[in-house]
Amino acid sequence: MGENPIAEVVIDFPPVNAVPAAGWQSLADSIIAAGADPATRVVVLSARGRGFCAGVDIKEMRRDTSHETLLAANRGCAAAFAAVYDCPVPVIAAVHGFCLGGGVGLAGNADLIVAADDATFGLPEVDRGALGAATHLARLVPPQLMRAMVYTCRPVTAAALHRFGTVHEVVPAAELPAAARAVADAIAAKDPVVIRRAKESLNGIDPVDVKRSYRFEQGFTFELNLAGAGDRARQRFEEGR
Protein backbone atom coordinates (compact mmCIF):
# COMPACT_ATOMS: atom_id res chain seq x y z
CA MET A 1 0.00 0.00 0.00
CA GLY A 2 1.30 3.50 -0.85
CA GLU A 3 2.41 6.05 1.71
CA ASN A 4 -0.86 8.01 1.68
CA PRO A 5 -3.64 5.66 0.56
CA ILE A 6 -6.31 7.71 2.37
CA ALA A 7 -6.53 11.40 1.49
CA GLU A 8 -8.56 13.74 3.68
CA VAL A 9 -10.18 16.92 2.39
CA VAL A 10 -11.49 19.16 5.17
CA ILE A 11 -14.21 21.83 4.88
CA ASP A 12 -13.10 24.70 7.12
CA PHE A 13 -14.91 28.02 6.70
CA PRO A 14 -15.70 29.38 10.20
CA PRO A 15 -18.00 29.91 11.89
CA VAL A 16 -20.59 27.59 10.31
CA ASN A 17 -18.98 26.32 7.10
CA ALA A 18 -21.12 28.54 4.89
CA VAL A 19 -18.82 28.25 1.90
CA PRO A 20 -17.94 31.44 0.00
CA ALA A 21 -18.08 31.47 -3.79
CA ALA A 22 -14.33 30.98 -4.23
CA GLY A 23 -14.32 28.30 -1.55
CA TRP A 24 -16.42 25.92 -3.65
CA GLN A 25 -13.88 25.95 -6.46
CA SER A 26 -11.06 25.54 -3.95
CA LEU A 27 -12.86 22.53 -2.52
CA ALA A 28 -13.29 21.08 -6.01
CA ASP A 29 -9.59 21.58 -6.73
CA SER A 30 -8.60 19.80 -3.51
CA ILE A 31 -10.80 16.80 -4.25
CA ILE A 32 -9.56 16.59 -7.84
CA ALA A 33 -5.93 16.76 -6.68
CA ALA A 34 -6.50 14.04 -4.09
CA GLY A 35 -8.09 11.72 -6.64
CA ALA A 36 -5.38 12.42 -9.22
CA ASP A 37 -2.64 11.15 -6.90
CA PRO A 38 -1.98 7.53 -7.94
CA ALA A 39 -1.23 6.64 -4.31
CA THR A 40 -4.75 7.62 -3.21
CA ARG A 41 -7.18 4.76 -2.72
CA VAL A 42 -9.94 6.56 -0.79
CA VAL A 43 -10.85 10.19 -0.10
CA VAL A 44 -12.48 11.19 3.20
CA LEU A 45 -14.40 14.46 3.04
CA SER A 46 -14.88 15.89 6.53
CA ALA A 47 -15.32 19.25 8.23
CA ARG A 48 -14.17 21.26 11.22
CA GLY A 49 -16.43 23.34 13.40
CA ARG A 50 -20.09 23.26 14.33
CA GLY A 51 -21.36 21.40 11.28
CA PHE A 52 -20.39 19.71 8.04
CA CYS A 53 -21.64 22.45 5.72
CA ALA A 54 -24.27 25.21 5.88
CA GLY A 55 -24.34 25.61 2.09
CA VAL A 56 -23.44 28.81 0.27
CA ASP A 57 -22.52 32.02 2.06
CA ILE A 58 -25.78 33.97 1.84
CA LYS A 59 -24.30 37.06 3.50
CA GLU A 60 -21.54 37.22 0.88
CA MET A 61 -24.20 37.08 -1.81
CA ARG A 62 -26.18 39.88 -0.17
CA ARG A 63 -23.14 42.16 -0.18
CA ASP A 64 -22.83 41.89 -3.97
CA THR A 65 -25.32 44.12 -5.79
CA SER A 66 -24.51 42.36 -9.08
CA HIS A 67 -25.07 38.68 -9.80
CA GLU A 68 -21.36 37.87 -9.98
CA THR A 69 -21.18 36.16 -6.58
CA LEU A 70 -24.30 34.14 -7.33
CA LEU A 71 -22.88 33.02 -10.66
CA ALA A 72 -19.52 32.16 -9.12
CA ALA A 73 -21.17 30.21 -6.30
CA ASN A 74 -23.34 28.25 -8.74
CA ARG A 75 -20.36 27.39 -10.93
CA GLY A 76 -18.32 26.49 -7.86
CA CYS A 77 -21.03 24.28 -6.38
CA ALA A 78 -21.39 22.43 -9.67
CA ALA A 79 -17.61 21.94 -9.80
CA ALA A 80 -17.37 20.72 -6.20
CA PHE A 81 -20.27 18.29 -6.49
CA ALA A 82 -18.87 16.97 -9.78
CA ALA A 83 -15.41 16.57 -8.24
CA VAL A 84 -16.87 14.28 -5.57
CA TYR A 85 -18.85 12.28 -8.11
CA ASP A 86 -16.06 12.04 -10.69
CA CYS A 87 -13.29 11.32 -8.19
CA PRO A 88 -11.67 8.13 -9.55
CA VAL A 89 -11.63 6.55 -6.07
CA PRO A 90 -14.45 6.22 -3.53
CA VAL A 91 -15.29 9.31 -1.49
CA ILE A 92 -16.51 8.91 2.10
CA ALA A 93 -18.37 11.88 3.57
CA ALA A 94 -17.87 12.12 7.34
CA VAL A 95 -20.82 14.28 8.40
CA HIS A 96 -21.44 15.90 11.75
CA GLY A 97 -23.93 18.56 12.83
CA PHE A 98 -25.83 20.29 10.05
CA CYS A 99 -25.53 19.26 6.41
CA LEU A 100 -27.57 21.81 4.47
CA GLY A 101 -27.95 22.95 0.87
CA GLY A 102 -24.58 22.53 -0.78
CA GLY A 103 -23.62 20.13 2.01
CA VAL A 104 -26.31 17.77 0.71
CA GLY A 105 -24.83 18.19 -2.77
CA LEU A 106 -21.46 17.01 -1.49
CA ALA A 107 -22.73 14.19 0.73
CA GLY A 108 -25.32 13.04 -1.82
CA ASN A 109 -22.62 12.58 -4.45
CA ALA A 110 -20.29 10.74 -2.07
CA ASP A 111 -19.98 6.97 -2.35
CA LEU A 112 -20.58 6.43 1.36
CA ILE A 113 -21.71 8.56 4.29
CA VAL A 114 -20.60 7.95 7.85
CA ALA A 115 -22.44 10.31 10.18
CA ALA A 116 -22.35 11.47 13.77
CA ASP A 117 -25.51 10.93 15.77
CA ASP A 118 -26.06 14.70 15.84
CA ALA A 119 -26.07 15.02 12.03
CA THR A 120 -29.09 16.38 10.17
CA PHE A 121 -29.61 16.79 6.44
CA GLY A 122 -31.82 19.37 4.77
CA LEU A 123 -32.48 21.68 1.84
CA PRO A 124 -33.57 25.15 3.03
CA GLU A 125 -33.33 26.44 -0.55
CA VAL A 126 -37.00 27.43 -0.87
CA ASP A 127 -36.63 29.67 2.17
CA ARG A 128 -33.53 31.19 0.54
CA GLY A 129 -35.21 31.94 -2.79
CA ALA A 130 -33.13 29.35 -4.61
CA LEU A 131 -33.36 25.80 -5.94
CA GLY A 132 -30.80 23.06 -6.29
CA ALA A 133 -29.39 19.83 -4.80
CA ALA A 134 -32.74 18.02 -4.95
CA THR A 135 -30.77 15.90 -7.43
CA HIS A 136 -28.51 14.85 -4.57
CA LEU A 137 -31.19 14.66 -1.89
CA ALA A 138 -33.02 12.20 -4.17
CA ARG A 139 -30.03 9.87 -3.74
CA LEU A 140 -30.59 9.87 0.02
CA VAL A 141 -34.37 9.72 0.58
CA PRO A 142 -37.45 8.30 -1.21
CA PRO A 143 -39.10 10.54 -3.86
CA GLN A 144 -42.11 11.72 -1.84
CA LEU A 145 -40.00 12.53 1.19
CA MET A 146 -37.57 14.43 -1.04
CA ARG A 147 -40.47 16.55 -2.32
CA ALA A 148 -41.76 17.19 1.20
CA MET A 149 -38.28 18.22 2.35
CA VAL A 150 -37.91 20.65 -0.56
CA TYR A 151 -41.33 22.24 -0.04
CA THR A 152 -41.18 22.47 3.78
CA CYS A 153 -37.39 22.85 4.23
CA ARG A 154 -37.68 20.26 7.02
CA PRO A 155 -34.44 18.37 7.75
CA VAL A 156 -34.08 14.68 8.56
CA THR A 157 -31.70 12.97 10.96
CA ALA A 158 -28.78 10.74 10.15
CA ALA A 159 -30.63 7.97 11.99
CA ALA A 160 -33.53 8.25 9.50
CA LEU A 161 -31.14 8.03 6.56
CA HIS A 162 -29.47 5.03 8.16
CA ARG A 163 -32.83 3.28 8.17
CA PHE A 164 -33.12 3.99 4.43
CA GLY A 165 -29.62 2.55 3.98
CA THR A 166 -28.23 5.76 2.49
CA VAL A 167 -26.08 6.54 5.52
CA HIS A 168 -23.66 3.69 6.03
CA GLU A 169 -23.13 4.11 9.75
CA VAL A 170 -24.15 6.44 12.60
CA VAL A 171 -21.79 6.83 15.54
CA PRO A 172 -21.34 9.16 18.52
CA ALA A 173 -19.77 12.43 17.38
CA ALA A 174 -16.50 11.78 19.18
CA GLU A 175 -16.12 8.52 17.26
CA LEU A 176 -16.79 9.93 13.79
CA PRO A 177 -13.17 10.36 12.60
CA ALA A 178 -12.24 6.83 13.68
CA ALA A 179 -15.39 5.34 12.14
CA ALA A 180 -14.81 7.05 8.80
CA ARG A 181 -11.18 5.97 8.89
CA ALA A 182 -12.17 2.34 9.57
CA VAL A 183 -14.40 2.25 6.48
CA ALA A 184 -11.67 3.96 4.45
CA ASP A 185 -9.12 1.40 5.67
CA ALA A 186 -11.38 -1.45 4.59
CA ILE A 187 -11.70 -0.01 1.07
CA ALA A 188 -8.02 0.93 0.86
CA ALA A 189 -7.09 -2.69 1.58
CA LYS A 190 -8.71 -3.81 -1.68
CA ASP A 191 -6.95 -4.02 -5.02
CA PRO A 192 -6.72 -0.36 -6.10
CA VAL A 193 -7.14 -1.14 -9.80
CA VAL A 194 -10.34 -3.07 -9.12
CA ILE A 195 -11.71 -0.34 -6.82
CA ARG A 196 -11.07 2.38 -9.40
CA ARG A 197 -12.81 0.35 -12.10
CA ALA A 198 -15.67 -0.36 -9.67
CA LYS A 199 -16.15 3.38 -9.10
CA GLU A 200 -16.16 4.02 -12.85
CA SER A 201 -18.60 1.20 -13.51
CA LEU A 202 -21.02 2.29 -10.77
CA ASN A 203 -21.07 5.84 -12.09
CA GLY A 204 -21.72 4.44 -15.55
CA ILE A 205 -24.91 2.65 -14.48
CA ASP A 206 -26.43 5.53 -12.50
CA PRO A 207 -29.98 6.16 -13.77
CA VAL A 208 -29.65 9.96 -13.45
CA ASP A 209 -26.89 12.19 -14.80
CA VAL A 210 -26.33 14.11 -11.57
CA LYS A 211 -24.26 16.86 -13.17
CA ARG A 212 -26.79 17.64 -15.88
CA SER A 213 -29.82 17.46 -13.57
CA TYR A 214 -28.18 19.75 -11.02
CA ARG A 215 -27.39 22.36 -13.67
CA PHE A 216 -31.04 22.13 -14.75
CA GLU A 217 -32.11 22.94 -11.18
CA GLN A 218 -29.72 25.88 -11.05
CA GLY A 219 -31.45 27.45 -14.02
CA PHE A 220 -34.49 28.03 -11.83
CA THR A 221 -32.31 29.82 -9.27
CA PHE A 222 -31.32 32.29 -12.02
CA GLU A 223 -35.00 32.72 -12.89
CA LEU A 224 -35.92 33.40 -9.25
CA ASN A 225 -33.19 36.01 -8.99
CA LEU A 226 -34.31 37.77 -12.15
CA ALA A 227 -37.83 37.83 -10.70
CA GLY A 228 -36.57 39.37 -7.44
CA ALA A 229 -37.60 36.40 -5.30
CA GLY A 230 -34.00 35.51 -4.49
CA ASP A 231 -33.17 38.97 -3.14
CA ARG A 232 -36.33 39.03 -1.01
CA ALA A 233 -35.57 35.64 0.50
CA ARG A 234 -31.94 36.48 1.23
CA GLN A 235 -33.00 39.73 2.91
CA ARG A 236 -35.43 37.80 5.15
CA PHE A 237 -32.63 35.36 6.02
CA GLU A 238 -30.20 38.17 6.89
CA GLU A 239 -32.83 39.90 9.01
CA GLY A 240 -33.48 36.63 10.86
CA ARG A 241 -37.09 36.31 9.76
TrEMBL record:
Protein origin, superkingdom: Bacteria
Q: Which InterPro entries match?
A: ClpP/crotonase-like_dom_sf, Enoyl-CoA_hydra/iso
What Pfam families does its record include?
ECH_1 (PF00378)
Keyword Glycoprotein among record annotations = no
Q: Which UniProt keywords apply?
A: Lipid metabolism, Lyase
Q: Which NCBIfam families match?
A: PRK07938.1
Q: What family is this?
A: Belongs to the enoyl-CoA hydratase/isomerase family.
User: Which PANTHER family is this protein grouped with?
Assistant: (7AS)-7A-METHYL-1,5-DIOXO-2,3,5,6,7,7A-HEXAHYDRO-1H-INDENE-CARBOXYL-COA HYDROLASE (PTHR11941:SF169), ENOYL-COA HYDRATASE-RELATED (PTHR11941)
Q: What is this protein called?
A: Enoyl-CoA hydratase family protein
Lineage of producing organism: Bacteria, Bacillati, Actinomycetota, Actinomycetes, Micromonosporales
